[in-house]
Amino acid sequence: MLKQSSSRMKKGLIILLAALFIVALTAMSVNASSFAEQSVPVDAESQSHHSEQQHSPINHDTDLPKLIIDKAQTALVVIDLQNGIVSQPTKPYPAQDVITNATKLVNTFRKNGMPVFLVHLITTKETMLNVTSDNSSSNPIAPPPEWSKFVPEIAPTSTDIIITKKQWGAFYGTDLELQLRRRGINTIVLCGITTDFGVESTARFAYEYGFQQIFAEDAMASRSVEQHNAAVNFIFKRIGRVRNTDEILEALQ
User: Fold this and answer.
1) How far apart, in whole angstroms, are the C-alpha atoms of residue 191 and residue 80?
2) Residuewise pLDDT in 10s, the chain (253 residues)
3) Which CATH architecture describes the domain 71-125+140-251?
4) Bridge-based pairing state of the strands 241-243 and 161-165
5) Which helix (H) or strand (E) holds 42?
6) Kind and range of the H or E element at 221?
7) For the whole model, what pTM was predicted?
């Protein structure tokens, strides 16, 4: 009798434990499902925001002081808007958009009688840089003459100053600094392609020479959004003022 009672108690206990185990699993499943429903949208939103930060054009700060430009001491320096360079894909702005904005600046500077410096790259087999590097962009074959011609939208006029360079920056090995100093220029507006090569190299030299700088952010572009943004956010904002074309044009009215 006692043995039968003990056996029934064991069976009852096993059934009870099994029931409790099933209840616990059900509860865990419900909680996990609820957590997933709450976390997935947040994750997706976070990823979307991160993606926008990585791939969207620069957002200008809203609390920046109004841009004031002294027309008598300011010049425009346009970097490498030439056939061979603008033909390559650019981001975050297509090359044609960069040309359009740069042309607005060129025309306004000319109209105001302010100096316009048009910089282009001309290399030959004898003068091109030939460095040993992990990721060299050097081409052993010199480009054809048409490669270095300015795009027709900014075709040089008699009042423009043409600067011919043989490397990224517009200062080294040219008379750009001399031409600026002789005209009493202490501020330059920079634009062109590419943001982190020709423009940035020129900007670094200008900073070390003591020039004030204004960067037309939407009148320049690079090979990727990341490259463009890095130059603008980490370099240009430390050595000058970053504005868009319309802000600069407004200051020149």
Assistant:
1) 9
2) 544 555 565 555 555 555 554 445 444 444 444 444 444 343 444 443 443 344 445 565 568 899 999 999 999 999 999 999 999 999 999 999 999 999 999 999 999 999 999 999 998 777 777 778 888 666 666 778 888 999 999 999 999 999 999 999 999 999 999 999 999 999 999 999 999 999 999 999 999 999 999 999 999 999 999 999 999 999 999 999 999 999 999 999 9
3) 3-Layer(aba) Sandwich (3.40)
4) unpaired
5) helix 2-55
6) strand 212-221
7) 0.76
